């Protein structure tokens, strides 16, 4: 069975998938001072952060329109037997909803999956799906497995800018005021696709160490965990330091570094750092 894979621009794909002929990426939109940019096409990550530093206003983002997805599905449906569309958490963006509505306008076999995550962890879902496809796994079984995996990841993150997270609607006013006034660095985790506070610490360094400690404990409890994603904004050096440290303790662990895209940067900020793994 020939399957088309559709996703959105918050995804981070491994090198071997970046130019895959059957993967289609729909860009989200970024607004800077009333000017609109297509995420991943009109702005690189570095260009985004440069604009962020010089802009008097914080940028905003929005999901693709329903019609964008419907048009894409219509244009590719005759080339494939089916389509699987994997998107960032429906609780963080309306992209999943737009994709689902667009799929209902097209006469084709389309399954739309809420990854309940974004970035490299979402890319790993697509990678796993393609692997299953190549192994000859039946279509419905692929969809079921990806849906199952979406509920079995652990993701923790420290946000580089609480102000951006708050103004983007991802943190309530009380949390923002307390965090800013007390100079607290909250450790957030993704719970069923939604950001929630796991712990609160005083410094960025302690927050990073605590997240790594959480992973080390999880790895001790489940030695089968074989890969880890280190997610960062504009600080690859921080991610590299932690990769080197973890590789000493876990030489067989596959550790991947993942820069956040501009859309995530809108809400998270340059100094964001996170860790993620599938159970």
From TrEMBL:
Single annotated GO MF: lipid binding
Give the residues annotated as coiled coil: none
Keywords attached to this entry: Lipid-binding
Which superkingdom is the protein from? Bacteria
Question: What InterPro entries does the record point to?
Answer: DegV, DegV_C, DegV_domain_contain
NCBIfam families from the xrefs?
DegV
Entry's PANTHER family? DEGV DOMAIN-CONTAINING PROTEIN DR_1986-RELATED, FATTY ACID-BINDING PROTEIN TM_1468
Task: Name the chain's protein.
Answer: DegV family protein
């Amino acid at each position: 069975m020939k399957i088309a894979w559709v996703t959105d621009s918050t995804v981070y794909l491994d090198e071997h998938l970046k130019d895959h002929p059957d993967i289609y990426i729909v860009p989200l939109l970024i607004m800077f001072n009333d000017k609109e940019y297509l995420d991943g096409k009109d702005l690189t990550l570095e260009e985004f952060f440069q604009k962020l530093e010089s802009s008097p206003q914080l940028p905003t983002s929005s999901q693709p329109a329903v019609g964008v997805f419907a048009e894409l599905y219509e244009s590719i449906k005759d080339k494939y037997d089916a389509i699987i569309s994997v998107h960032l958490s429906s609780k963080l963006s309306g992209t999943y909803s737009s994709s689902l509505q667009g799929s209902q306008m097209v006469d084709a076999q389309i399954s739309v999956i809420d990854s309940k995550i974004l970035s490299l962890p979402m890319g790993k879902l697509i990678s796993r799906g393609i692997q299953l496809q190549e192994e000859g796994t039946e279509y419905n079984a692929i969809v079921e497995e990806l849906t199952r995996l979406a509920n079995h990841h652990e993701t923790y993150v420290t946000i580089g800018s609480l102000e951006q997270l708050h103004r983007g609607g991802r943190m309530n006013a009380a949390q923002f005021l307390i965090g800013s006034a007390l100079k607290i660095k909250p450790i957030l985790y993704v719970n069923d696709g939604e950001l929630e506070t796991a712990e609160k610490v005083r410094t960025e360094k302690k927050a990073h160490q605590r997240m790594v400690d959480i992973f080390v404990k999880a790895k001790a409890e489940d030695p089968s965990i074989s890969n880890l994603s280190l997610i960062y904004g504009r600080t690859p050096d921080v991610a590299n330091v932690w990769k080197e440290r973890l590789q000493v303790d876990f030489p067989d662990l596959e550790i991947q570094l993942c820069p956040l895209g501009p859309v995530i940067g809108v809400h998270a900020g340059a100094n964001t750092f996170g860790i993620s793994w599938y159970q």
